[in-house]
Amino acid sequence: MNGKVLLVDDEPHITRNLVKVIPWSMLGLEITGTAKNGVEALELMQADPADLVLCDIRMPVMDGLELVRHIRKQGLPCEIIMLSGYQDFAYTRAAIQYGVKDYILKPIPYDELTGVIARVMSEQRNKRLQVKEEQRRLGRMIDLASEKVLYDVLMDYTDITPDNWLMAAQEQHLGNPRYTLILLDIDVGSENARDWREWPDKERKMWNFAVCNVLRDTLQLAGLLHAVIQMRDGEWCVLIQSREDEEPVGERQIKAWTELLLHSVQNNAKLKLQAGVFSKQAAITELSFAYKTVQRGIQLTTETVPFTIFSGEQTGGIEAGRALWDIAERLIGAMKRGDAAGVDEEQKRIAEQLQQAGGSAEGRLKPLLHFLALHLMRELKEADLLPPGQEESLWRKMDMRLCVKDLFAAIRQASSEGAARSTDKRKQSERQLADARTYMDRHLFRDLSVEEAASHVGLSTSHFSLLFKQSFGETFIEYVTRQRMEKAKSLLQDTLKSVAQIAKEVGYSERRYFTKVFMKYAGQIPTEYRAALQGSTASASDEEPEE
């Protein structure tokens, strides 16, 4: 698209010459208007803003310098080149003060003017590209931060309320967001997944990353506000966001979105997935329930359909499966904690469920037990409690279509050994977390991700997040933000550094965003906090508007 040029001069022959002599098309520009004075020019600019203004200084009604002053005051984004028949330093100085790019004396040297225009517009285009790239990077940083918060919410690692200081500047732009939750999962028990589970870990990680990118690109092209969070190996949660005041998303639209995502992954990542959808749009406080409902539904369903909608209100035959699932969730939790007694207790409860089912266990509960065994294997692997040799052994057993007794024996053996390994790893984990916290404290000044901290101590992201919450009583983001805010408090109290400098020192490239987080955390904006501590007004460098 060509840039727009406005010519402003009270001498018609100069305007005609500028139109004819300057190779506008070659410069990527087109003349969209001409004016005889500043008043006419302002009217044209307000109706159709120009990228470049060539303006005479001395004109009737409103001269060039007054026009430039109005343009800058109104914040109209354009570059300005002044034309004048007077070699007066006072004019030049005033033009420079108003941000005029260059000053050309009449009679106009058209070759020189062409070169000046080319340079000015090249600088403008480069600046716009740089701003666009910075906005893209900042947007992705905010997306990643939001995804980290949403992961903790989905896993029920943290409570999010509307006034939570971690959500500063995130929730306001959409009011009260509502989410359509779509869970995409590889059916690890299917023939389609056999090749996938035999891939080396490095190849599987690359594939997981590729699927995330496919999902994000698909949603981006569809123009949907979204987040894609990998929950565990081969499982992704897609959240499509809308405002509370928008019309509810209908089942037909949700079906279209889900089919689009499944089709895109199959075409681009060459793997068939299954999907589950929560039946209604969920508020952020309902996401954990929605995720667990859909995850459980996918794991326990015996239907072979591309996707299913789950409401969490199913009754009848599914109740026994839900009871087994609840027991399995407690079993997995006890196993990860290294609670051998808790593991033993939940194993007994599974046995009781099977005994109560009696002869129907083989037909009715066997498929559910098979799914639970697969779910347990994935959780063991995600928690790094499943050695490769045992994983291969369990996969072979699953492929043999074991009877209920053998399936239960496999579950009992895997969970008992997992609990034992978890106990052995507890002391190692304590050392790893202490190392991670030291590493985090040393790198608060820059963008620090949970993936980086987890990788530093050799843990998976999800397992690291779980251990961190269990050990320190707060999530990774809560800890990092609290440490940054406390350090900011110290810097505000003990130094004369500006708020912008302090923001950068504690890891925030955007001063405005830092101020919002600090306000949520401390109840005051940084300058007010400093003034209250020092009993004096803040320095001039800090007195710019906070909002």
From TrEMBL:
Residues 434-532 form the HTH araC/xylS-type domain. SUPFAM superfamilies: CheY-like, Homeodomain-like. Residues 4-121 form the Response regulatory domain. Transmembrane segments: none annotated. Keywords: DNA-binding, Phosphoprotein, Transcription, Transcription regulation. InterPro entries: CheY-like_superfamily (IPR011006), Homeodomain-like_sf (IPR009057), HTH_AraC (IPR018060), Sig_transdc_resp-reg_receiver (IPR001789), Tscrpt_reg_AraC-type_HTH (IPR020449). The modification 4-aspartylphosphate is found at D56. Gene3D superfamilies: 3.40.50.2300, Homeodomain-like (1.10.10.60). This is Response regulator. The lineage of its organism: Bacteria, Bacillati, Bacillota, Bacilli, Bacillales.
